[in-house]
User: Which sequence fits this backbone?
């Protein structure tokens, strides 16, 4: 995985003088990348007096100044580095719609402490002052023209499906689609609209700086209409992608998505990682602090002054999130700057027997706000006979036993403003992220636990589950805080039914009588926690046989949980039944129009 390689993102940049030599060589192969390219090989030779800190930095576009590298690799990763020659292999790089260039720099150990710049772990970053060699350009075949980063999402109507993809220009593009197996002459074609954003619309560093900014290309958005649930469809946007079955019904990723935090290319990397899944399975998101928070964010009540602390979004102020995704509904919130309004904040849809609601914990959710009105109105109009279960999702948790006390006021506000709606309108389950852990609470009503079992009939308040264990780094959530004896967060409170620090994901399965949520550990693929909630309305007293209902293609889930290593929060919401029908509109193949 790219994220595991010795890639570090720089934090500052300005041009530095290079020191090219006539003897040192640097070559990178292949010079032309394709979607099937699995790795890139870097070779160098004739480097005199090598140092263990000498490194190769990666650039795109080639006009980038020396300090604006995307990442770097120390040459000492090669066993022969001390001879002044060697090779390194990189996993494939994302298609950034512009060529790559590699530059070899010397970094004498005596200069290690001269550079004041450090990465997020406090380690020194290269200062790029001694350039020894430059590679030729490495380009993607058809870069810019070829649609990339395909991902699906539910649209506003049940018989529609939206596909988004990225190109390097805003020329005419369309989406062609039709029933699988039918002649393509019978397919329909719809135009795709292009959107983008500019560097000047970023709100802070590094998003608005040369070190973080790269043009995002143009995000195309096409809506396929008139679809019949229960049928298999294919579509083409001129790109290829793997074929998958129809499970899960959709994927839910509840904020802190790519962790780009102002480094634009990481968004491209993320969308390439999820494309094998997201081009065949709708991918739904809500906003997290790392897509949004910046110092001048418009809603920052006094209690949140230290919660919305301004740096988490890396200056993106929600713009890439708003353009790169397009969720149902038309929610928006002004940025208060020159940046476009923030979108994809709150929305809902039905999938089979479940009504799903998404909120933004970063924008106003208090009584009287647009978001509050939406949530209230939405919950008031749920058809409980059609969707006996309601799953509510947002980024910052309403309940956690984490020692992250900084967000305490936020949680209290959420409980004050939103929990009464959850209780009144029978929300079954509330899923949250933000805390890098899995933690399941019992059904909660104003800090009171209504049932301590892991299998129960819905008691009138939602079970809360934090599912922030997708793969972001370690967070010492459960360690005691001896300096906070008044905060009862440790040891595990009675209302916390299960909590664990392992990476993993969750899977949700719902039938008319029962909803089951499973936590699956990445390390072994096994179910480590499970809760089943029987419908209050439709429970017939005959519990379903869970084992017979579990999907067998678990490799699909394991694949994507491993591929989204940059994500903080990944909650999988899967079901056998989809949008108001027993069977899904299925997406089983995406063909390459160009081959
Ligand atoms: Fe977060």
Assistant:
């Amino acid at each position: 995985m790219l994220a595991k390689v010795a890639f570090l993102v720089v934090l500052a940049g300005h041009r530095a003088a290079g020191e090219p030599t006539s003897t040192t060589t640097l070559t990178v192969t292949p010079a032309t990348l394709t979607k099937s390219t699995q790795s890139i090989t870097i070779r160098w030779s004739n480097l005199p007096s090598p140092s263990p800190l000498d490194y190769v930095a990666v650039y795109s576009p080639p006009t980038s100044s020396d300090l604006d590298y995307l990442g770097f690799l120390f040459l000492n990763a090669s066993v022969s580095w001390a001879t002044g020659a060697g090779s390194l292999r990189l996993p494939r790089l994302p298609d950034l719609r512009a060529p790559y260039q590699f530059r070899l720099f010397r970094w004498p150990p005596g200069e290690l402490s001269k550079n004041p710049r450090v990465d997020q772990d406090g380690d020194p970053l290269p200062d790029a002052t001694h350039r020894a060699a430059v590679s030729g350009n490495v380009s993607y075949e058809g870069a810019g023209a070829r649609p990339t980063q395909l991902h699906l999402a539910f649209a506003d109507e049940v018989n529609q499906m939206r596909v988004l993809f990225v190109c390097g220009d805003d020329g005419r593009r369309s989406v062609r689609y039709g029933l699988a197996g039918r002649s393509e002459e019978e397919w329909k074609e719809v135009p795709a609209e292009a959107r983008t954003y500019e560097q000047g619309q970023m709100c802070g560093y590094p998003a608005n700086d040369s070190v973080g900014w790269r043009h995002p290309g143009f995000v195309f958005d096409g809506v396929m209409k008139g679809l019949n649930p229960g049928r298999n469809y294919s579509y083409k946007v001129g790109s290829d992608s793997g074929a998958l079955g129809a499970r899960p019904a959709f994927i839910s990723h509840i904020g802190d998505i790519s962790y780009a935090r102002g480094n634009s290319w990481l968004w491209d990397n993320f969308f390439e990682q999820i494309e094998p899944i997201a081009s065949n399975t709708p991918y739904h998101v809500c906003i997290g602090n790392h897509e949004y928070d910046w110092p001048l964010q418009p809603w920052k009540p006094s209690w949140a002054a230290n919660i919305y602390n301004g740096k988490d979004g890396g200056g993106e102020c929600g713009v890439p999130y708003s353009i790169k995704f397009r969720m149902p509904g038309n929610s928006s919130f002004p940025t208060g700057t020159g940046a476009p309004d923030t979108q994809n904040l709150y929305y809902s849809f039905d999938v089979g027997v479940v009504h799903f609601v998404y909120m933004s914990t970063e924008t106003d959710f208090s009584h009287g706000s647009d978001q509050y009105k939406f949530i209230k109105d939405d919950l008031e109009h749920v058809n409980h006979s059609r969707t006996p279960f309601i799953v509510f999702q947002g980024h910052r948790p309403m309940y956690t036993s984490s020692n992250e006390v900084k967000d305490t006021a936020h949680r209290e506000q959420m409980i004050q403003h939103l929990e009464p709606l959850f209780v009144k309108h029978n929300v079954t389950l509330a899923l949250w992220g933000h805390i890098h852990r899995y933690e399941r609470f019992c059904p909660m009503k104003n800090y009171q636990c209504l049932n301590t079992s892991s299998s129960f009939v819905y008691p009138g308040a939602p079970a809360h589950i934090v599912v922030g264990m997708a793969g972001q780094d370690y967070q010492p959530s459960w360690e005691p805080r001896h300096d906070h004896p008044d905060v009862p967060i440790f040891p595990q409170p009675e209302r916390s039914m299960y909590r664990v620090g392992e990476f993993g994901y969750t899977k949700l399965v719902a039938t008319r009588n029962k909803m089951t949520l499973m936590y699956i550990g990445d390390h072994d693929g096994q179910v480590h926690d499970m809760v089943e909630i029987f419908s209050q309305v439709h429970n017939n007293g005959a519990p379903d046989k869970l084992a017979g209902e579990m999907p067998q293609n678990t490799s699909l889930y394991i694949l994507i949980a491993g591929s989204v290593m940059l994500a903080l929060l990944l909650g999988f919401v899967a079901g056998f039944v989809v949008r108001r029908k027993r069977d899904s509109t299925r997406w089983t193949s995406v063909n390459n129009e160009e081959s």
